[in-house]
Design goal:
Elements: E1 14-16, E2 22-24, H1 25-29, E3 33-37, H2 47-58, E4 63-67, E5 73-74, E6 77-78, E7 92-95, H3 102-111, E8 116-119, H4 130-143, E9 148-150, E10 156-158, E11 176-183, H5 186-199, E12 203-208, H6 217-226, E13 232-237, H7 243-254, E14 259-263, H8 268-278, H9 285-295, E15 298-300, H10 303-315, E16 324-328, H11 331-343, H12 353-360, E17 374-375, H13 383-393, E18 401-406, H14 411-418, H15 422-425, H16 428-442, E19 446-450, H17 460-475, E20 480-481, H18 484-502
Helix pairs in contact: 3-4, 5-10, 6-7, 7-9, 10-18, 11-18, 13-16, 16-17
């Protein structure tokens, strides 16, 4: 799913929604007028006030209407005493008031024309009390009368294109991309959004839906299936209301777009914990694994694996790449790459004699190897040599993708000897250009591995330079992983998905 920053044209502005007529998703994800209920004059210490500050920091360009019965002013905005006092209709409401006040606030937002509301407040079915369940029942009743609800007990929406953001995340990326994420956990969504910012995963939209009293995973999956801004769908699921309908939606979505799923609560202890988290029921590990496989979804075990898989799906071509070349400095790196590749069902074929000879002509005379993996022996191999090796290796018809492993920490000694900062010694921009050029000229994608064994307090300059290098590679369309195993595991997910898709989803 090639695409780094800009996404396709937006999807349907409205979709049919489970007996509720039409849902105006354009006004929910791209609102022009947002009411925030629960803002005090000392708003920085309140959820509502923090959300207002976060929206302003994100550069949200629409109008914000803070609401609190005491009135006043906050962050340059008038605080309205009631939703009804807002002088114009609203598109989206953010509700961060006490649980008992939520139903009346939600009804006022509905009457004010809101297409949707995200309820940050907790104190509902997740408490396990009759009072909490009754309050959540009132939310459902109001939603059924004509307003879509995200939550309660959630972080709401992050949409880079419109400037909507989670609480408390005022510094998330405004750069849009093809990955959407649906999550029952607000913390998981916030962590993924922050990880994506430095890893290079760019998002079309995220929804933390918490208890999911109204809008939740199944209906949102069907929306994202048709959303032109979304090319990859990721989910963190704890439990579902209607397993059969969820499976149908998941299967339908995976036939069109890669769907990556992290299922929480599969252990006994995890299942107990999630009941008090979002009032969901977990499920059997074997059953879920079977369901996800049958649906054609990609199952991952943790958030890191999910982020790496989404990076690969969003930046690599939509096809299986089963034959690789691996290039780097050090024989053990190549051996490890071969071991990992075999484990993940990926081939690293040995180069034919004529190709090996041509590559040998570019390598140092001692310690190097032109077999596949290619051991360049010298970690200081210049960018033009790396480019030449990649171009030659791509000439082997069995090679679908190339992995270049960099060991930038070796440049530390050169920097010290020259008396220069390490950031001025490592030619990472030139390396990024070399990889970009090789990929474009050969039509075979190149992946960078930026492994860094030095991360102590005395190595912060090296850590900073490595992160700058990561950004340079990403800016040129080269996906970056920290370890070779991570890159191969992510590629294995891509291969498995597109292989099954090409086979018509046969088992």
């Amino acid at each position: 799913m090639k695409g780094k920053t800009k996404s396709a044209a937006p999807g349907p502005l409205m979709t049919a929604g489970a007996g509720r007529g039409y849902t105006d998703y354009s006004r929910i994800f791209h609102p022009r007028r947002v009411a925030v209920a629960g803002v005090s004059r000392e708003g920085v210490f309140s959820y509502g006030g923090s959300l207002v500050l976060s929206l302003q920091a994100m550069g949200y360009e629409g109008r914000i209407f803070p609401v609190n019965p005491k009135g006043g002013n906050f962050s340059g905005l008038e605080i309205f005493r009631r939703i009804e006092d807002i002088p114009e209709n609203i598109d989206l409401a953010v509700i961060a008031v006490g649980a008992a006040a939520v139903p009346d606030t939600l009804e006022a937002c509905r009457k004010k024309g809101a297409a949707g509301a995200e309820i940050i407040s907790s104190g509902f079915s997740e408490t396990g009390t009759p009072e909490g369940r009754a309050l959540e029942g009132k939310i459902r009743e109001i939603a059924a009368r004509g307003i879509r609800v995200i939550g309660p007990n959630c972080f709401g929406i992050y949409c880079p294109g419109s400037g909507l953001t989670f609480l408390p995340n005022p510094d998330l990326s405004r750069q849009s991309g093809p990955v959407a994420f649906l999550s029952q956990s607000g913390g998981m969504a916030s962590d993924f959004a922050n990880m994506g910012k430095w890893m290079g995963v760019r998002f079309s939209k995220m929804v933390s839906f918490g208890n999911g009293a109204d809008l939740r995973e199944t209906e949102l999956l069907r929306y994202l299936l048709e959303d032109g801004e979304t090319g990859v769908i990721a989910l963190y699921v704890e439990g579902v209301e209607d397993g059969e309908d969820f499976f149908a939606a998941l299967r339908e979505a995976a036939r069109k777009k890669p769907v990556v799923v992290l299922k929480g609560g599969l252990s006994r202890a995890g299942g107990r914990a999630l009941i008090s988290h979002t009032a969901s029921l977990g499920g059997d590990r074997v059953i879920w694994k079977s369901i996800l496989k049958q649906a054609g979804a990609v199952q991952v075990e943790d958030l890191n694996e999910m982020a790496q898989a989404c990076l690969a799906f969003s930046m690599l071509p939509p096809r299986a790449c089963k034959g690789l070349s691996v290039i780097g400095g050090g024989g053990a790196l190549g051996i490890a790459a071969c071991d990992f590749a075999e484990f993940f069902g990926i081939d690293i074929p040995s180069f034919p004699a004529d190709l090996k000879k041509n590559i040998e002509n570019l390598l140092p005379r001692s310690g190097a190897s032109a077999a596949n993996p290619v051991d360049v022996a010298n970690p200081y191999t210049p960018p033009e040599t790396v480019n030449g090796i990649l171009r030659l290796a791509a000439g082997d018809d069995r090679i679908d993708l190339q992995i270049m492993i960099f060991l930038f920490h070796h440049f530390r000694q050169i920097a010290r000897t020259a008396g220069r900062p390490v950031g001025e010694t490592i030619p990472f921009r030139e390396f990024a250009e070399a990889l970009e050029d090789a990929a474009k000229e050969t039509g075979k994608p190149v992946v960078a591995v930026l492994s860094n064994a030095k991360r102590g307090l005395e190595d912060l300059d090296l850590v900073e330079t490595t992160e700058k290098a990561r950004q340079a590679f990403l800016d040129r369309g080269v996906p970056v992983f920290e370890e070779t195993r991570d890159a191969l595991r992510a590629l294995a997910h891509v291969n498995a998905y597109y292989t099954r898709r090409g086979q018509g989803w046969d088992e």
